[in-house]
Write a structure and sequence with these properties.
It is built from two helices and two strands. It has 67 residues and is of the alpha+beta class.
């Protein structure tokens, strides 16, 4: 019985930690994700010159689409 309870508590704590990690990662700011035909992905973050060239038009498009 104790092993089952410990497993349940461990699973709950792991889920909570994962949720916190994912939320913090999602709030880290704007980024550009480039997907290539061979399945690779390159992520360019905010503040990098390559990202700013792509983020500015993307923000304009999203603003126009949202009205």
């Amino acid at each position: 019985m104790r092993a089952g309870r410990a497993l349940a508590v461990g699973a709950a704590l792991g889920s909570a930690a994962g949720a916190i990690f994912l939320r913090r990662r999602a709030r880290s700011g704007d980024r550009v994700e480039l997907y290539f035909d061979d399945g690779t992905l390159v992520t360019v973050g905010r503040g990098e010159p390559e990202a700013e060239r792509l983020l500015s038009p993307a923000r304009e498009l999203l603003g126009a689409a949202r009205g």
